[in-house]
Design a protein that fits this description.
342 residues; 2 domains; two-stranded antiparallel ribbon; 15 helices; 5 strands; 5% strand; globular
Length: 342
């Protein structure tokens, strides 16, 4: 046995042990890059004379990821950002993991939510006149306008259009971001009114005590008893019921092949889906409200598992058309999930 094969075997054993560990038993701490980002964000708040600090905690919801627990000051951070090993594992299954820049942008956004709740800004008449009705339900599907100048652009082109609460959070995030001259960048935009409002309101409440300091945690990692394998749906096919498996294979069978065609160059569909996972997730999540890239990736990974289990194939020369078809299929599954959860 060569040194290379021994090293590989040791790595596989460590990976198996990690996947077999319950999330609640992981030695999780806010440290490393994540801690540095939080401290940097504290400095941003300090420079704006804002004394308020959100309550950060590590959560186990890897599909929806980040979030401020509704009407509390608690911000959930995905547990996999706690250390590099977990970040690598997450990237393996989701093909993406937040870097420093993205972490900072999300921290600013979620702090915007926490400040909105802590000071009950959404109840103010002037807030409502600018951002809208806070009690408004999130729509099921996107009716977004990517180039609208009524909203700022921070996390992506349309995130501020999701809901008045997100419109405020995105505006706050732009306002607090160092190095951005928002007055110049958004000159001529209708969104400038929102940024000016944020500036006035934050200067007015910066030194005041919050009206609400409610603490509540949604799915904290320290209480998650599933193993990492269970959380990441590693055994995706084994977890499917007979009915679910039948539906998946019928849908995929209309797009891909169970047997190779003569005189054609084929490739495994599972590899094809893995290669284009990020492009599909990006496209679908952008245009469907109530979805995000992580939830879309979970569906794609399940399709990958089914395709690998049944060894589905495709003709390489048909990659373009098959990408369009499978994107439509993933979109249908996402919309179906949204309606089932509603």
């Amino acid at each position: 046995m060569t040194a290379k094969s021994i090293k590989k075997s040791i790595e596989e054993i460590k990976r198996y042990e990690l996947l077999s560990t319950r999330v609640c038993n992981l030695p999780l701490k806010i440290e490393g890059v994540l801690r540095e980002c939080i401290l940097d964000h504290y400095e941003e708040l300090k420079k704006k004379n804002i004394g308020f600090r959100p309550r950060y905690y590590l959560g186990a919801d890897i599909d929806d990821g980040w979030g401020c627990v509704n009407e509390t000051i608690c911000v959930e951070i995905p547990f996999y950002l706690a250390n590099r090993e977990l970040m690598r594992l997450h990237e393996e299954y989701y093909a993406d993991v937040e870097g420093r820049e993205e972490i900072m942008k999300i921290l600013r956004h979620e702090t915007g939510h926490a400040i909105n709740y802590a000071y009950k800004l959404h109840a103010r008449r002037d807030w409502k006149s600018i951002f809208g009705d806070f009690s408004k339900r999130y729509p099921k599907t996107y009716g977004s306008q990517p180039w609208s100048k009524k909203h700022v652009q921070h996390l992506d082109l349309v995130y501020a259009q999701r809901h008045p609460d997100d419109d405020w959070a995105e505006s706050f995030a732009v306002w607090i971001t160092p190095g951005i001259n928002w007055r110049k960048q958004y000159r001529g935009w209708d969104a400038i009114e929102k940024l000016i409002y944020v500036d006035i309101v934050m200067k007015g409440i910066a030194h005041t005590r919050p009206l609400l300091r409610k603490i509540a945690y949604d799915r904290p990692a320290k209480k998650e008893r599933r193993t990492l394998a269970g959380l990441y749906d590693v055994q995706a096919v084994a977890a499917l019921s007979d009915g679910e498996m039948k539906n998946y294979i019928e849908d995929l069978g209309q797009i891909f092949l169970r047997r190779a065609r003569p005189r054609e160059y084929h490739l495994p569909v599972a590899d094809f889906l893995r290669r284009f996972r990020e492009a599909i997730a990006e496209g679908v999540a952008r245009w469907i409200m109530h979805s995000n890239k992580n939830s879309v990736r979970k569906i794609i990974r399940r399709l990958e598992s089914v395709c690998r289990h049944y060894r589905l194939l495709m003709v390489k020369s048909e990659e373009g058309s098959k990408l369009a078809e499978v994107t439509a299929l993933v979109t249908w599954y996402v919309i179906k999930d949204i309606h089932e959860l509603d």
